[in-house]
Amino acid sequence: MSTNFQQRKAFLADLEYILEQARAFRDYVRSGTKKELERHPFEQIIHNALLESSLSFLRKINEFFGGHREASVCLFLPDYPRQWLWDQADSDLLNERVMHLSLCEAREGKLDWAAFYSAHLPEAERRFDEFLLTLNDKHPEYFQQG
Predict the structure, then answer these.
(1) Which residue, 81, 68, 85, is CA-closest to 125?
(2) Residues 63-76: what's their mean pLDDT?
(3) Cβ pair 80, 73 in contact under 8 A
(4) What is the DSSP letter of 73?
(5) Is the pLDDT of residue 61 over 70?
(6) 130, 124 contact by CB (below 8 A)
(7) E strand or H helix at 93, and its extent?
(8) 56 vs 95: CA distance, rounded Å
(9) What per-residue confidence (pLDDT) applies to 1?
(10) Could you give the percent of the chain with pLDDT greater than 90?
(11) Alpha-carbon gap, residue 3 to 98, rounded angstroms
């Protein structure tokens, strides 16, 4: 299925939303909201929900840069090198232990997903910024209003 310029431009806005959502957990902690909710009975639920949601959006960014799907970096820049944000082991870990129902935690114990997240978000941001700079250089029309 091919896409026209307007569809790709709309998808670019969706990508910015995906990065914003991937940043949500970090922003929740940095803004002080997590600290404000420390004594709230739902604080741990909110913490977990934001962390898992942010991890799922981080996974989407990983797929955008490394995947061979229609919705990848090559949609905008066909010659742009596809490269995963992290290695296969971390991708499998995230898929098996967060994105899919499994017995991994029962067998192997809980993981510190905040550490995983903190280790991978900076690379996602760096790669996204690099992509936007390249796209703006080669196709500034994506950044023009209208």
Answers:
(1) 85
(2) 92
(3) yes
(4) G
(5) yes
(6) no
(7) helix 88-94
(8) 9
(9) 53
(10) 76
(11) 32
pTM of the complete model: 0.88
pLDDT in tens, 71-118: 899 999 999 999 999 999 998 888 888 877 777 776 787 878 899 999
Q: Which amino acid is at 53?
A: S
| Size (the chain), residues | 146
Can you list the pairs that 69-74 forms with residues at least 24 positions away whose Cβ atoms lie under 8 Å?
Answer: 70/1, 71/11, 73/131
Chain-centre distance of CA 50, in angstroms? 13
Could you tell me if 90 and 120 are in contact, meaning their C-beta atoms sit under 8 angstroms apart?
yes
How many CB atoms within 10 Å of residue 96? 13
Look up residue 88 and give its two tokens: 């296969």
CA atoms within 13 A on the CB side of 6: 1
Q: How far is residue 127's CA from residue 77's CA, in Å, rounded to a whole number? A: 14
Supply the range of the domain harboring residue 116. 5-143
Q: Please give the tally of structural domains in the chain.
A: 1
C-alpha distance from residue 14 to each of 21, 51, 138 (Å): 10, 20, 20
The candidate with the shortest Cα–Cα distance to 50, out of 133, 117, 125, is 117
Q: What is the DSSP letter of 115?
A: H
